[in-house]
Amino acid sequence: MRIRILTISERQPDWVTQGCNEYLRRLPRHLATEVVELALAKRREDPLRAKADEGERLLAAVPKGALIVALDEHGSPWTSVQLAQQLERWQRSGRDLALLIGGPDGLSAAALAACQQRWSLSALTLPHGMARMLVAEQLYRAQSIIEGHPYHRP
Q: What does pLDDT average to over the chain?
């Protein structure tokens, strides 16, 4: 299973990239994960159009046949154990996985409608880079739970 984290963002600070890469590097090969950054749309003229444009580009970057999951504040607030269970289900599906992280205005209605699931990282509003790094860390933690690795201590 390949995982693609699709994100609308500006260039992130080095600590975000390094932290994210560290957790993704720890994932086993059968969970090959990549981060794909897509540029922010210009918001000066029409912020709604910018959000729609970002949604179109996110969906265009989703691999064919992939399961699409939105990172959305109104999504399911899974615990790490619940995420591990989700990850096992996703792996058994035999499909690739696309995780969508929207821009500063969130995901467009079209992008949300294309998603099979919505995952809420927190009730808090998180900086974009921190959300990205948290996704990477939680994927690693979920896999460590599946494998019985001591990284996750209940």
A: 94
**Hey, where are the domains in the chain?**
3-147
Which token pair is 54?
A: 């970002």
d(CA 23, CA 10): 21
The class of domain 3-147 in CATH terms is alpha beta
Q: With a cut of 70, list the residues of the chain below it in pLDDT.
A: none
